[in-house]
Structures are given as C-alpha cells and as structure tokens.
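Page 47, continued from p. 46.
Same chain as before, 375 aa.
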Amino acid sequence: MKHSPSRPVIAVSGLHRGESPQSGSAVIESLRARLPEARYIGISYDSLETGLYSCDRDQVDAAYLFPYPVAGPGELLTRMQEVHEAEGLSLIIPTLDSELDNLLTVQSSLGEMGIKIIIPSRRSLQARAKPVLDLLGKRTDVPVPRTFTANDPATLADYAAQIGYPCYVKGALYDARLVYNYAQLHEAFTTICAVWGPPVLVQEAIYGEEYVVGGVGDGKGGLVCQCAMRKLLRSKLGKAYGGVVIEDPAVNDIALRLVKELKWEGPFEIELVKPAGGEHHLFEINPRFPAWISFPAKIGCNMPAYVAEHALGLTTATPSRAPVGKMFFRHSEDVVADIADVARIITRGETEHTSENALPAYDAQEQWPRMRASQ
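Result:
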C-alpha cells in the first residue's frame, strides 16, 4: 500500500552506528528535525545494522534488505521496484560509496518511476576516486600524499619501498591500514582484496592535524553550504569521535577549489591533513554525508534537510554557518531490540515499526548468504 503523496517517503542507506559508523542514521536524525511528517525507509544490506533498531530520533519507519552492490544494477532495480510499489518512494539519499555506481546506472529508470535521487555525476565521482586523487590535486594546486595503485602484493611492496614505511594500504572504496613493514603490507593487501577486491593502494603517511569539511555542491561549481571541523578525538580506525568547528581561510579555499573543479552536486566530505609547518594535504573526498553530519544540524546548519527539501521542490533556505567553537563528542549507548524484529528482516527481507504495509515474503534466506559469499 502506497502512502499519501502529500507525505514524502525518503529512503536512506548506511544505518550502522558501530565502531566504524555510517552516516544514514545521522542523516535521518537531521531530516526528522525539519521534516517530521515524512516517512523514512531504510535501505539495508545487513540485518544487524544498528540503525534498524535504534531510538525514535533516528529510527526508520520501515526497512528493506537489498542485494549487496556486487550483484549489479539489475538486482538493485528489481528490488527498488518492489519497495517502490509498497512504499511510493519520493527520494533516495544514498550514504555508501559502494552503492553509487549501480545507482548512477539505474538513475534514469528511477526518475521514470518518479523517484528523485541525490547523487553526484559519474564524471565527478570518478575524478575524485582514490587512484586518481593526485591528478585532481595537480589540477587544483592541492598537495596530495604520494599514492600508487597495484593489483598484486609484490608491486604494491615496490611502491611502498619508494614511499617508505610506515605507509597506508587502502582499498579503492573502503578500508585503510597503517603498515610498518612488508609482512603487514602483505596481510593488509590480502585482507582488503578478500573483502573489496583489487586494486589496492599504498599511500604516503603524513602526520599532523586532521581536518574535515562536510558540504553540499550545486552541480555547477558552487558551494551551497559547508561546515569545516578539526578532529579532536579519533578512533583507532581514524574516524572522528570528537571535533570543533573552525573558520580557516585555507581550508575553505581548498573546499571551494575542489568543488569548482569537480562541479560537485550534492553532499561530500573532504578530509585534509596538515603537518606541522606545512600545507594542508588532501587525504580523500567521500561522495556522501559524513557520519558526524547530525552535529552541525543541531547547531543551525542542517545540510541533509536542505538537500531533501531542495530535491523535493519544497521551500527551503540555505543553512546558516555552524558557529565557530562548537564541539561534538561521539557517545556510545546500548540499543534494545526484539529478536522477532531481527528474525523478520532476516527471513522476509523487510521490517517496520507499524503494522501496515508488508511485502510478500522475500527470499532472504537464499539471497543474503549468497550475496555475502560473493562479497
């Protein structure tokens, strides 16, 4: 049963808020602050994503399991059509890098179904990819740590010898490991390839203060809004667990130059490292909202709400600048769920927090183990 067309139905992915948090729950929390009347649908790839069972402020109204992105655009479109038939989707906000290629492929089909999607162009996406980030840095005059790409550990080790240890071993989409010798490099290469496949990158390790910029581009080279922050606390995986809003002309200028060159449309996160006495180096550009995006939303800079309202054709105003000096700290808490909710999403491929609108049983028992094995 589709919901009222006057009530937006917004689908968001990336619902895990564990040790390496995804940004979907933070996006929903921000959206609910401004669009409480909307219905929020979770796009999930794992029945144990914590956002499926969290509290009211970031909880989805319903969630549906999807095939892992490795299954390709055809499987994605089939499942999206099923969910759209049940929900009447208005808008999709993806928050996982691995989804974007498939979504770009089916974007026109989604548009024919009346589903809007917030996603950068394929050109923009490819131009900021990790293997070619140094080329972007040269075009924008932004230093980038030396980076090389390889498909086998021996070649990667040769590049590491040129860079010098310690260095980072990174997947093209996810994962980054600091290694100090060949044995650790080989182990990192094997682990990353087993999960994400080749190529694998080796990158010069640069130490210094770390900065992040979350923002929204207009697709024409302009920067609609942004929040720049210096990391104060980091997890062992390098994730921001505490930060403070800053006003740094050099950081702002880098963000403007990159967005202009890429003609970036939609949300992004720029990561920078500034060694003592040196310049800011571009570490990477993530093509989605960061996991800390609900922090600026709480202090007047609600970028997810702006993006959603703009896409839906609603009246919106450009978010205010986040006040300099405001800080955030990540806080862990236990989430209470019922085993019946977990069982439902495992066996049926969907769950919801009301009794209405259930899809016919989805072959989750066969789909999800197969997709996980192929990953």
